[in-house]
Amino acid sequence: QVQLTESGGGLVQAGESLRLSCAASGIIFITMAWYRQAPGKQRELVADMTYGGSTNYADSVKGRFTIARDNPKNTVYLQMNSLKPEDSAVYYCNAVSGSRMYWGQGTQVTVSS
Interior CA angle at 78 toward 45 and 56, to 5°? Predict the structure, then answer.
């Protein structure tokens, strides 16, 4: 059974940091990513990383967020620094294997001003 288990969300003040983790089980994923969705907005890609290490970031987080993965552990991380109130959202782990896409349950990140 394929499962994505997220952790690390919470409430922080602007300028602080958080690290999200997503542990995948059941299959080896080619691309792992983080998306986020704020109230009233569409879900958007934050960052993704291929099994080979290529990364892609949303312009709004470049220079502040870093995605990393531990392939033997099948885990992806999102280090979020210099957080802003506009980063507040539910963050979802996403993983792709072949033609199939999987989602985690989401973890809330709230940044107060």
Answer: 45
- Please state whether 63 falls in left (phi above 0), alpha (psi between -120 and 50) or beta: left
pLDDT digits (tens, 9 = 90+) for 36-62: 999 999 999 999 999 889 999 999 999
Write down the pLDDT at residue 5.
92
Instruction: Enumerate the β-bridge partners of residue 110.
Output: 11
Distance CA 26, CA 4 (A): 9
> What does the DSSP 8-state code read for residue 82?
S
5-14 per-position pLDDT tens digit: 999 999 999 9
CB under 8 Å to 39, separation ≥6 — which residues?
none
Mapped onto helix, strand or coil, the DSSP state of residue 41 is coil
CA 10 to chain centre: 14
DSSP assignment letter at 26: S
Please report the pLDDT score of residue 28 as a whole number.
76
Contact by Cβ (8 Å): 18, 25: no
